[in-house]
Amino acid sequence: MDKQGLSSPDRNNHSCQYRFSYLSILLDKDDYCTPFILCPGVNFLVLKEACYYNHNMKKNRTAVTQSGEDLSVFRRFQNKGRLFSLILLSSFLLFPVQSINAIPLTFAAVAPREGASVLAAWDNLFSYLEDKAGGEFIVQIFSDNETLVKQLRGNFIDLAFLDPALYLLERKRTPLRALAVAEKQGRAEERRYILASLGSVIYTPEHLEGAVFAYTSREESVAGSLVSKAMLLNRGLNPETLFLKTVYAGDYESVFRAVVLGSVDAGMVTEEIISRKENHNYLGFVRLIDVSLYIPNNLIVAREFLDETLLSNLSGALMTLSQTDRGRELLSQLEFSGFTTPEEVDFSSLELYLGLYLSRKGNKDESSE
Asked: What is the Cα–Cα distance from 169 to 150, expressed in whole angstroms?
């Protein structure tokens, strides 16, 4: 799968494009802007709810166009009121106006492997949720978190299924609202385990020096990598120099299998992997050497500007999925047991690990300057 990702088919054959161009005109003495979303060859959509207000834009009194990730600033308009009136009048006279609910929202998730099956599972879920939420959704799947985050920052996607560490990091620069945390086997939080192969001589984290260690991904900002490194830092060990070699297995199940087979000396897995019935027979081939505090599962987040009623309906529909046979069937396709509200989930342990990791990373960056 390339980095452009996979997309679900347009179920209702919308002619409107989903990567919009925003033309925002800021008026003097106004604390708001009125974006016009141009769908090429179709119409203008007046979308007051989707106001991308920016203090710098207000100060400079400029007109800004945003298309994809490209941001260009044009010359100041001398007569802003007249121009605004002209555009508003022409949009109503020459083009039909659609409501915000007519615009499908784009949801994105990451699947390093089996992207087509993951796409189908998420698309089935959101097709089911459309009537309950009162909106329409397009699903996209990316092969890595870096691409997903870039799309989120560029306003190409509206909702995302994010790693919890990425959520804590990204919400500092992108206004995000947490909607629902995924539950696995009835739990929205789980511990991480550092396991060693039974055939190794590793009994404690200190014995990891010179070992071959398996991570799920090269991405440092995801919980699997970040938490394991923070756990080692907390014991006074440097994860950057501790190992002889690091291996990137792609997912926790693959890490577990590699440790069981002895192809790596150690690696980190989730509690859910350990508790899977099909893995019980293999637990005798691994040795537990460290365990983390409870870490939240991945969660669905939305960009802040989206319609409040739609987000509330979507959140409510996600919470009740496990109460119906069809809902449980859709959840099982994603290996979830349900969703819970973010307010019921404790992020403090992950924030502790994140702070420890970032402080170490900051000291390392300063020493290298």
From this structure: 13
d(C-alpha 146, C-alpha 219), whole Å: 8
Cα–Cα dist 231/360, whole Å: 12
Candidates 73, 297, 51, 71; CA nearest to 186 is 297
Q: Which of 347, 233, 361, 239 is nearest to 301 (CA)?
A: 347
* Residue 44 CA to its chain's centroid (Å): 30
Tell me how far apart the alpha carbons of residues 251 and 214 are, in angstroms, rounded to a whole number: 10
Beta partners for residue 66, in sequence order: 22, 71
Instruction: Say how far apart CA 239 and CA 224 lie, in whole Å.
Output: 13
Q: Under a CB-based contact definition with an 8 Å cutoff, are residues 191 and 290 in contact?
A: no
User: What is the pLDDT at residue 55?
Assistant: 34
Give tens-digit pLDDT for 78-98.
Answer: 444 555 555 545 554 555 444
How far is it, in rounded angstroms, from Cα 275 to Cα 293?
17
Average confidence (pLDDT) over 174-198? 95
Owner of token pair 């699997």: 224
Distance, in Å, from the CA atom of 189 to the CA atom of 292, rounded to the nearest integer, reads 11
* Residue 358 burial class via C-beta count within 10 angstroms: exposed 0-12, middle 13-18, buried 19 and up: middle
For strand 338-340 and strand 137-142, is the pairing parallel, antiparallel, or unpaired? unpaired
Q: Supply the pLDDT for residue 238.
A: 94
Spatial distance between the Cα atoms of 94 and 44, rounded to a whole number of angstroms: 9
Cβ atoms of 239 and 250 within 8 Å: the answer is: no
Residue among 137, 265, 276 nearest 194 (CA): 265
Question: Are 298 and 146 within 8 A, CB to CB?
Answer: no
Q: pTM for the complete prediction?
A: 0.72
* pLDDT at 101 (0 to 100): 53
d(CA 167, CA 177): 10
Contact 198, 356 (CB under 8 A): no
